[in-house]
């Protein structure tokens, strides 16, 4: 049996997209046992995966909790440790494991953080880069390879697709929600996940453009569509404003609030029932990809090249000079409702907006 420990705790979307390595690992090692260490809040994203045998949760910021878990893991034997986060406590945990093969971030004998050469294609573009921040940022901009392709190449496996298991209860809850809100008449239900939390405001689509996009789709589809507004608690105020603006139009749209306090499973089940998701570079986008739902994703401060859509839809990319700058105030003004609506209609197989 080949025993592998994967250390990947955050962010939520990053955890989910990293499950793309699991099919390749399972194919390479037929007798495989995987333990995945992630943040408590992300366990739901990996614990139901067919290739994950044990899902452990930890608070990466709690050094005492990480140390205690590290001690318990030393009683086990792993043939390969993937250390895919660069926080010091997690690097220390990875370095403490008695394994013949460590891939990723670790602590040196001098106590500094470093990473193994085999993960340079990814870590060279990050904060820990051996090349320095300027070079790392430049590599991000010029990179044309997707995250799953890079990871497959680094680990010597075929490129796979992320996957997310849904429970029967979550699926039944989403079905009941759609029935309650009149979204089971056969007309397309289009999810609008246009926010990005409080930290990444430049990932969002401007509110007027969101409404313009919805109006264009409503017009092109002759009113035969529904809009489901999605997001978390951080988007609650923004989403209420979208609902207010949409309901005050001369030709009101059928817009439903998906709620901001869904569990991860309940949220994924809502995404899974959509005919199309329009989304920022966010967890919702990664969920749509993992559930093979059509998606139109837009990008301003982050890299569109890193995202593999697997033929599920289109990317709308900022044309501003600071595209892919990872700046919180990056210019997102070229992410217009018209551009996104055109991409959405193509993805739905419909005619363009008049």
How would you characterize the overall build of this protein?
The protein is α/β, with parallel strands linked by helices. It folds into two domains: 2-155, 3-Layer(aba) Sandwich (Rossmann fold); 168-348, Rossmann fold. The protein is built from 14 helices and twelve strands. The mean pLDDT is 96.
List keywords for this structure.
16% strand, Rossmann fold, 354 residues, 6-stranded mixed sheet, alpha/beta, 14 helices, single chain
How many discrete domains? Answer: 2
Structural class: alpha/beta
CATH superfamily of the largest domain: Glycogen Phosphorylase B
Shape: globular
Report on the biggest sheet: 6 strands, mixed
* Helix content bin: 25-40%
Catalogue the unreliable spans. none
* Secondary structure tally, helices: 14
Spatial order of the strands forming the largest sheet: 3-2-1-4-5-6
Percentage of residues in DSSP E strands: 15-25%
CATH class of the largest domain: Alpha Beta
**In CATH terms, what is the architecture of the largest domain?**
3-Layer(aba) Sandwich
Instruction: Please count the beta strands (DSSP E, at least 2 residues each).
Output: 12
The SSE order reads: EHHEHEHEHEEHHHHEHEHEHEHEEH
Radius of gyration: 21 Å
- Please tell me the overall pLDDT: 96
Distance between the termini: 59 Å
CATH third-tier fold name of the largest domain:
Rossmann fold
């Amino acid at each position: 049996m080949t025993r592998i420990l994967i250390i990947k705790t955050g962010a939520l979307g990053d955890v989910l997209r990293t499950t793309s390595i699991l099919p390749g690992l399972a194919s390479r090692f037929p007798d495989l046992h995987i333990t995945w260490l992630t943040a408590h809040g992300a366990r739901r994203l990996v614990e139901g995966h067919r290739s994950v045998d044990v899902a452990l949760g930890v608070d990466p910021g709690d050094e005492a909790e990480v140390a205690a878990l590290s001690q318990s893991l030393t009683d086990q034997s792993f043939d390969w440790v993937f250390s895919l986060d660069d926080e010091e406590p997690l690097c220390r945990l990875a370095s403490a494991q008695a394994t013949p093969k460590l891939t990723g971030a670790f602590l040196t004998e001098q106590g500094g953080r470093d990473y193994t050469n085999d993960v340079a294609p990814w870590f060279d573009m990050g904060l820990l880069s051996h090349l320095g921040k300027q070079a790392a940022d430049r590599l991000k901009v010029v990179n044309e390879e997707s995250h799953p392709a890079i990871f497959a190449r680094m680990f010597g496996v075929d490129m796979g697709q992320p996957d997310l298991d849904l429970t029967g209860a979550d699926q039944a809850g989403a079905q009941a929600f759609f029935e309650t809100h009149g979204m089971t008449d056969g007309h397309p239900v289009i999810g609008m996940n246009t926010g990005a939390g409080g930290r990444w405001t430049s990932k969002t689509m401007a509110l007027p453009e969101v409404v313009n996009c919805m109006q264009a789709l409503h017009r092109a589809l002759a009113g035969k569509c529904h809009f489901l507004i999605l997001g978390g608690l951080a988007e609650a105020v923004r989403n209420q404003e979208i609902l207010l603006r949409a309901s005050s139009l001369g030709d009101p749209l059928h817009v439903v609030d998906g709620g901001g306090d869904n569990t991860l499973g309940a949220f994924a089940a809502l995404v899974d029932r959509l005919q199309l998701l329009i989304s920022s570079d966010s967890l919702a986008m990664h969920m749509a990809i993992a559930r093979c739902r059509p998606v139109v994703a837009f990008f301003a401060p982050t890299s569109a090249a890193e995202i593999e859509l697997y033929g599920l839809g289109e990317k709308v990319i900022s044309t501003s000079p600071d595209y892919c700058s990872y700046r919180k105030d990056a210019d997102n003004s070229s992410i217009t409702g018209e551009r996104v609506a055109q991409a959405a209609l193509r993805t739905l197989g419909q005619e363009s907006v008049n």
